[in-house]
Write a structure and sequence with these properties.
globular; 289 residues; binds flavin-adenine dinucleotide; five-stranded parallel beta sheet; alpha/beta; 25% helix
Length: 289
């Protein structure tokens, strides 16, 4: 494991990247987690007319500009999905499957997940439904687990769970090659509902039902309060102060995840404020304030 970073930034959209460049300008030792496309919402935008200085630009063109900006500043992204962030007192532990990173401050810039939950998903959350298969795998020793996977990163999690669970069903919601252990059963179907009494018992799919004790729903982004236990949420967004601080000391947030309007410049602006606030926070710790 690398030594402890000053600031860990989770998310590579405009909020996360703006936080990254501003933290770097302040000479902080940073680590930035995201994906190759930087932001799916960015590359999907056909035309952007409200990004200052770049009238009539496409999302892909703006993404390329962001890419060269961070590369020119020597910022490398880590293409990993953070499963959980734990506040440890004077630092944070960030979990990527079985790997762990440490940072003194964290900026959450994970955007907003707009997909509707599956019927029963929220009802059984914590009662058999979870969002981090590797974190919760030990709970399913010798049990049956179903993994509804929205991206390829979930394959590693499924393989990990299969080493512990008795049986793993893998329901991919994307096409392509699946790099999955042979003992994991791939089920090409559509999830309809999660049912049970006290706890999860059945995952209903369009074509059949699976008897299962656990269901992991692995999307591109995890709900912020699932990602950071104890994080205060208000009306579906991370509650922040004007300096982008959250209710957890050293944890800041920026971009769509803090609330509307969902816009590039608002996200980039908040990323900058979050970075400068994180720098002040680190200075205050150093000076024992
Ligand atoms: P995002 O851009 O969503 O980026 C979040 C990033 O975090 C993603 O890369 C995601 O993969 C990553 N991430 C999430 N969870 C994790 C994790 N656990 N670990 C690691 N990485 C993680 N806005 C405008 O201002 N003008 C427009 O013209 C415009 N057009 C749009 C067109 C479309 C089709 C869409 C969908 C949106 C448009 N928007 C527009 C809105 C804009 O895309 C969003 O407001 C903006 O992208 C939000 O930036 P963000 O950095 O907060 O989050």
């Amino acid at each position: 494991m690398d030594s402890r970073y000053d600031i860990a930034i989770i998310g590579s959209g405009p909020a996360g990247l703006s936080a990254a460049i501003n933290s770097k300008i302040r000479n902080k030792n940073i680590i930035v987690f995201g994906n190759v496309d930087l932001s799916k919402k960015l590359i999907k935008a056909p035309k952007i007319n409200n990004y200052l200085g770049f009238y009539d630009i496409t999302g892909v063109e703006l993404k390329d500009k962001f890419d060269s900006h961070i590369k020119d500043m020597g910022i490398n992204l880590i293409y990993e999905k953070i499963n959980a962030v734990y506040a440890m007192g004077d630092y944070f532990s960030l979990l990527v499957n079985e790997k762990m990173y440490e940072a003194s401050a964290v900026i959450i810039a994970t955007g907003m997940e707009f997909d509707k939950p599956i019927n029963g998903e929220l009802k059984f959350l914590g009662k058999g439904v979870g969002y981090c298969a590797t974190c919760d795998a030990p709970l399913y020793r010798n049990k049956v687990v179903s993994i509804i996977a929205y991206n390829k990163e979930a394959e590693e999690e499924a393989n990990f769970v299969s080493e512990v669970a008795d049986k793993v069903y893998y329901i991919p919601m994307y096409n392509g090659e699946y790099n999955i252990n042979t003992d994991v059963e791939i089920v090409k179907d559509i999830p309809v509902e999660i049912t049970g009494h006290e706890k999860v018992e059945i995952l209903k799919l369009k074509k059949k039902n699976l008897l299962t004790q656990g269901v992991f729903v692995l999307k591109d982004s995890v709900a912020p309060d699932q990602l950071v236990p104890g994080l205060l949420i208000e009306n579906g967004h991370i509650k922040v102060q004007r300096n982008m601080s959250t209710n957890i000391d050293g944890c800041f947030a920026a971009g769509d995840c803090t609330g509307k309007p969902y816009q590039y410049l608002k996200s980039a602006g908040e990323g900058q404020v979050a970075a400068l606030s994180a720098v002040l926070y680190l200075d205050s710790i150093k000076n024992g304030i």
